[in-house]
């Protein structure tokens, strides 16, 4: 079978023909497809539609027959053909292995919004690290529909020709409806700003007709700053429920701290006073080390580090592990912050 996706991106028609001839499973087609013939052939809409219908895979005989009938401006032709939705990487979101702590109200609101009959699409608004994706993963336990995450880079890449972006996005939407899925797009503001150039249709205008349909559901995630792009398009904004996720309060972080610590080996913080004192020191230190990051992300990041630390280094105090953690952050500067 010819791998159409790999040929699609190639600008050289000679390469395509040579690839077919040299790799053909049918000996009678080796060196039988003349290059010059293509320059004089007129486009045939019927054949273009046939290619579009069978684009995911064609046998070589059929593909060569179609190829002989296409116009010499092959790049424009191939750009007009719908790409299969599988060209965009999707992955089913798995549920959290541990129960989500501190988001009961937000989870209940998400369930209510998603169970509405018409306005059943949600935008999660919150800063990086507050737990937007974790909330979605917890919600997978509450719904019978699989939640599919789409990689934005796959939607936006290789869309320099008019119509490519629109067809990619439309294909994904149709696939979501047909297979009864929920679509999840992180940093959805990037998608909303895309399209609408050189006569193309913007993503927001593609989405609007589907957002009022009962069987299409989408969850997006964005930050407070980037959510302004929705307010610039009132017709789009009113089709979504906006669910704001602030940083978790300190009492919830303390519950997380105690729960994670209780699961670690060699934990000698037995009484409540010790736990509370250690927690306060940890929070103050993390605020100094990682001032630009949000809770619960930076707390969970350290606790994960601490769990690995005591497995490798043996029993030690949180303070010693925290000092080591700080050195690691300082030396690598992986968070791009002034420390």
Automatic annotation (TrEMBL):
Domain AAA+ ATPase: 118-250
A molecular-function term among this protein's GO annotations: ATP binding
Gene Ontology cellular component terms for the protein in this record: cytoplasm
Keywords: ATP-binding, Nucleotide-binding
Taxonomy, superkingdom: Bacteria
UniProt cross-references to InterPro entries, sorted A to Z: AAA+_ATPase (IPR003593), ATPase_AAA_core (IPR003959), ClpA_ClpB (IPR050130), P-loop_NTPase (IPR027417)
A GO biological process held by the record: cellular response to heat
Role, per record: Part of a stress-induced multi-chaperone system, it is involved in the recovery of the cell from heat-induced damage, in cooperation with DnaK, DnaJ and GrpE. Acts before DnaK, in the processing of protein aggregates. Protein binding stimulates the ATPase activity; ATP hydrolysis unfolds the denatured protein aggregates, which probably helps expose new hydrophobic binding sites on the surface of ClpB-bound aggregates, contributing to the solubilization and refolding of denatured protein aggregates by DnaK.
Annotated protein name in UniProt: AAA ATPase
Source organism per UniProt: Streptococcus dysgalactiae subsp. equisimilis (Streptococcus equisimilis)
